[in-house]
Amino acid sequence: MQTTQEALETGFENHHGFWSYSYFDKDGNEYELTFEPCLFDQQMYVAFYRNKDLLVNKVVVKPGYTKE
User: Residue 13 and residue 37: Cα distance in Å, rounded?
Assistant: First the structure.
């Protein structure tokens, strides 16, 4: 199993502190899944956008699996 950081590094692009995965549908709409840092405790916001508009409320998550 990958750590959260390893999964982000292999599946997402790093954009100066937040991680992003984006794709376009057949109509040219851009969809973007992001992991955005919170200010404390290694928490992140998970957000889902279409054409830069937030589609659902952001959800706060904390990475679970880390290698010690």
Answer: 14
